[in-house]
Amino acid sequence: MTRWLWAISALLIAVAVATFVTAAVTGPVGQPPVSTRYSHQQLQADADMTQQMSVPAASGPMADGRVVDDQLRHARDPGFIEELEAHQRGIDQMLGRGPR
Hints:
The chain is mostly helical. It has 2 domains: about 1-30; about 35-100, no CATH class. Helix content is about 60%, strand content about 0%. The protein is built from 4 helices and no strands. Helix 2 crosses helix 4 (about 80-95). The longest helix has 25 residues, at about 1-25. About 5% of the residues are buried. The mean pLDDT is about 75.
């Protein structure tokens, strides 16, 4: 019984050490840049809309340009695109999803 306890203890210590070493090697997790031009609510709403529109063989007024909404207007701004991508990276990082 004593050998069994020592074996379990050694295993737990080895797992703990491996976890800490892995955390030390990967380093601290960086924070995504803070948006100053677009709110979190606006970025999230646009990310949600993009996901809803991302379907194969899309057709209709949104696909052929007959409808122009706020997302399409500010999507022309390269700064908005950068912030939207950073916003999505932050969400992916928070959820533990890797790069695509």
